[in-house]
Structure formats: structure tokens, C-alpha cells
Specification:
Radius of gyration: 24 Å
Number of strands: 22
Largest sheet: 8 strands, parallel
Helix content: 25-40%
Shape: globular
Strand content: 15-25%
Strand order of the largest sheet: 9-16-17-18-19-20-21-22
Distance between the termini: 39 Å
């Protein structure tokens, strides 16, 4: 069994051993080796631990021996002795637990690392509290003239319509531009100066697949931008390679602390890949990364040639840029997730937004599949899920079936008729389980616009598992916690951890 990197997190009760593979079972065979066999000398031996092997019988062991990048023994302490040489490093675990490393199948390490450097509003339970946190942060960290004030984590349910106002930010940041990212990362809150620098006014047309929230009386931008409209301002925020490397290293450190050994970075562009390359070249990439290259819905299949160039340029070592990310729709909270039936809003006028024309999504999926890309599609609403599955059918009909393990991520609402299609298409149902409990986003912004029947079917992970489909789990950090154990708990209980 191979080991990708050896990093340990010591706590009062757990040691998390960072491994490439999912369980220790193959190494258990070493216990049957006779004493006459010449043992490999281990570089590292862990002993006196509680080693959870994850084999079918759920066996426990007490020692692990590692030579180079391979686990050569898992078993009793006594059996590990034959692997010990004069240069073997010994670690007494003193009863602590050892687990195989976790794989996060949908996460944003650089963005998560960046959020740890920003003013954080996650703990604000009222709009007033969020404003107070920002005031205190600016008092403790005064802004230079013209410096952007950046924060993250504001929760949409704290404001009417999930629409905070620029005027409130104006009072806090003064003559500085400000951009505050929502906790779901599908909205931003900006002040008047940021809007001015981006040249957004009452005459600015909403960009494709985006929305500028406006004062209903004057038509002036009110201070909240949705989906692609966020980029109208975020593109003006300064960003350097050194900054991105610093954020990425912080995100990787956070992942290591939770025993995460492999991650799928769910949306990258070339500037992010440049940061990964520098980190890898410096020998500091401590997690295996599959990077999902961003696919622009405003462009056609011609963009795939550039994606292939990026894949070739940035795939080496622990970094593989071999996936392609498509945002098929938005999110329930802002009514941008695409539904098969309308939202229960005034006059039932909208069913959300599909970011790709059906013909374009089919063409992109077919070409990406033919070029060997693993397709990774954000699909929240049942309308988006159906369109995404239909695109995979089109690709399979054209190219035949092969094991690229295309993925549909999030899957908040899936029509029951579409559940069996995942297994037939070998499509991975990529859930983010921490979202499963009924928080304020679900109680206040989702259930009222879906109604009880649809709301009873949110996040049908069990249905997908029972269907035989391959199911994976991610955190979508920094949207929610990176801690895999919290996600596993909510997947089982659908209750907020600690409640």
C-alpha cells in the first residue's frame, strides 16, 4: 500500500495518518508472513495505537510500519518488531487512533485559505452583529487610502430578500472600496465606491446568468450582486501570485490538519494553477489535487483546446488538471437554481436559470468526454440535474461509455425519475453532506419557495446509494466547514453538529 505523504494531527484522542489509499486491508496480509522471511526495514513505525483498518470485517490493529512510500505492515505491536532497524523512527501513539486519510471531492483550497485571512462574518446571527464585526475589524486593522476592505461569510437570511445595502457598508468603510462575499459564494455585498470603480449604475444591464439587485423605486444598484454579476466588481480587486500562493498554503495546511490527503479543487483558472505550480515546485504541495478547469458558458467548444493546453502544462506530480467544471445553474436562495416546476413566489413567474443552452451543454459534454476530461457539473435544482444527465447521455451516445466518472455536484433537488440514471450513466453523485440539516437557508429561503412535497426530497443521498450509484462527499469549503467528521455526522443524522 502506497503512502502519498505522512502528516499527523495529534489531538487528545486521534492521530490521522495521511494515506493515498482508502484502507489498510492489503497490508494486513503481512501478519501472515513467516519469521523466516527477510523483513523490509521500515523508515517509520507507529505502535501502541488504535488503528482502524477499514477492511470488510472492520478489524483493528495496533501498529503500522512504513518503508519509503509503502505501508509494509499493519497488525499487532509484536509483529512490527521485525521491521525495525537502527535508523527506523519510532512513534508511540499512546492509544491514539489512526485512520486512513480523507478525500474531499469538492472543495476550494485557495479560496478557503484566503477566507482565513479576511474579516469573517460566519458567527454573525443578526445584520447588526455583522456590521459590528466589520467595524471592530477595521478599527483593529485600519485601511490605507484606496485599500479594498474584503470580508466573507455573511448569511443571506439575515437581510430581507438576502439583499444587504451599499449604504450600510458606506458608513463603515468610508472612502475605501469594499467587497463582502456571502457564505454561499453566489452573492457579494459591495459599497458605493466599489460600484463606482466597476462603473455599475442604474443603466448597467445585468450580465448573462447574473443579477444586479436594485432599489425598486430608483433602479439604482442597491449593493448586492448575484452569480456572474459578482465578477463585475471582483475583477477590480488586486491579486498577485504571491498572494495566491500564501492563500493556497494556508488552505493546504488546514486540509492537512483534518487528515485530508486528496482533494478535487472544484473550480480553477490559470492564475490558481500558477499558484499550485509554484507550491509544487517548492516542494510544499502536501495534498493530491485534481483540478477542475472552469468552462465559460459564454464560449463554445473552441475553449476546450485551451483547457487541453492547461491540462498538459499543469499536470505533474501531485497536481492533475484533468477535470472540467461547468456551473449548470445557481442556488435556491436567490431563485437561480433551475427547477422543473416554478418557485412558489409571487405569480410563480420563475423556474430559475440554466446557465447553458441545451445544445451548447450537450456539445461541450460530448467534446470534453471525447478529450478525456472528467466532467464536474454544479447542479442544484432538479431542472439542472436533468439537463446535466441528458448531456451525459448525448456524450455517451456519441463516444460510447468509458470510465471517466463524470460528476454532478450538490444535488439539492433530484426528480425521483432521474435517480436510476446515475448508475446507468456511471455518473458520480457528489454530495456536500454538511448542508443536509435544516439551517436558516433551508427553513427561511428554500422550503417556502419549494413547498412541502419538494422540500421533503432535499439532498436524496440515501436514494442514490440504494440505487447502486457511486456516491462521493465533499465540503465545498469555504462555503461550510472543511472538517470531514462534521460532514459525516450530518450525513447520518441530518442534525446540526453539537445541537
Amino acid at each position: 500500500m502506497r503512502v502519498s505523504a505522512l502528516t499527523m494531527k495529534f489531538s487528545s484522542s486521534i492521530v490521522s495518518l495521511i494515506l493515498l489509499t482508502v484502507w489498510f486491508a492489503p497490508a494486513l496480509a503481512e501478519e501472515s508472513v513467516t519469521e523466516k522471511k527477510v523483513a523490509v526495514v521500515a523508515d517509520l513505525v507507529l505502535r501502541d495505537g488504535q488503528v482502524f483498518t477499514m477492511d470488510a470485517a472492520r478489524n483493528w490493529a495496533h501498529a503500522v510500519a512504513i518503508s519509503g512510500d509503502r505501508i509494509v505492515y499493519v497488525g499487532a505491536d509484536s509483529g512490527a518488531k521485525r521491521f525495525i532497524g537502527p535508523k527506523t523512527k519510532m512513534i508511540d501513539l499512546k492509544g491514539k487512533m489512526v485512520l486512513p486519510g480523507f478525500i474531499d471531492s469538492h472543495v476550494h483550497p485557495l479560496g478557503g485559505g484566503e477566507s482565513l485571512f479576511r474579516c469573517n462574518l460566519d458567527k454573525a446571527t443578526t445584520a447588526t452583529a455583522a456590521l459590528d464585526i466589520m467595524r471592530a475589524h477595521i478599527k483593529a486593522h485600519p485601511l490605507a487610502p484606496g485599500e479594498w476592505f474584503l470580508a466573507s461569510g455573511w448569511k443571506l437570511p439575515l437581510w430581507t430578500g438576502g439583499n444587504p445595502l451599499k449604504s450600510d457598508l458606506d458608513k463603515i468603510v468610508g472612502d475605501n472600496p469594499a467587497l463582502i462575499t456571502a457564505s454561499d459564494h453566489h452573492s457579494v455585498w459591495v459599497n458605493s465606491l466599489a460600484l463606482s470603480q466597476a462603473k455599475i449604475d442604474k443603466y448597467t444591464v445585468d450580465p448573462p446568468n447574473g443579477r444586479i439587485e436594485r432599489d425598486p423605486q430608483t433602479g439604482e444598484p442597491s449593493g448586492t450582486l448575484r452569480e456572474s454579476a459578482m465578477q463585475l466588481v471582483s475583477s477590480h480587486v488586486p491579486s498577485t501570485l504571491d498572494d495566491r500562493v500564501r492563500f493556497l498554503l494556508r488552505g493546504l495546511h488546514e486540509a492537512n490538519s483534518f487528515g485530508i490527503t486528496s482533494m478535487q479543487d472544484a473550480d480553477v483558472d490559470e492564475p490558481i494553477l500558477e499558484a499550485y505550480k509554484r507550491v509544487q515546485d517548492n516542494g510544499e504541495l502536501t495534498v493530491r489535487i485534481v483540478a477542475a478547469l472552469h468552462v465559460n458558458p459564454a464560449k463554445g467548444v473552441e475553449q476546450i483546446a485551451n483547457l487541453a493546453k492547461l491540462r498538459a502544462q499543469y499536470t505533474s506530480g501531485l497536481l492533475r488538471a484533468m477535470s472540467a467544471k461547468l456551473f449548470v445553474d445557481g442556488v435556491m436562495e436567490t431563485h437561480t437554481a433551475a427547477l422543473l416546476q416554478p418557485y412558489l413566489t409571487k405569480n410563480n413567474v420563475t423556474s430559475g436559470t440554466l446557465n447553458f443552452r441545451t445544445e451548447l451543454l450537450n456539445a461541450l459534454a460530448t467534446k470534453l468526454d471525447a478529450e478525456g476530461f472528467q466532467i464536474h457539473m454544479h447542479a442544484i435544482g432538479d431542472g439542472a440535474v436533468r439537463q446535466a444527465l441528458d448531456a451525459l447521455v448525448t456524450a455517451e451516445n456519441k463516444n460510447g461509455q468509458h470510465d471517466l466518472r463524470h460528476q454532478l455536484a450538490h444535488l439539492q433537488l433530484v426528480d425521483p425519475a432521474d435517480v436510476p440514471r446515475f448508475l446507468k450513466l456511471r455518473a458520480v453523485a457528489n454530495f456536500e453532506p454538511y448542508w443536509f440539516y435544516p439551517d436558516s437557508f433551508i427553513r427561511e429561503l428554500t422550503e417556502p419557495v419549494l413547498g412541502p412535497q419538494r422540500s421533503s426530497r432535499l439532498y436524496p443521498m440515501r436514494s442514490l446509494v440504494k440505487s447502486g450509484a457511486l456516491v462521493s462527499a465533499g465540503s465545498d469549503w469555504p462555503v461550510t466547514t472543511l472538517n470531514p467528521l462534521d460532514g459525516i455526522e450530518v450525513a447520518v443524522t441530518r442534525i446540526e453538529p453539537g445541537s
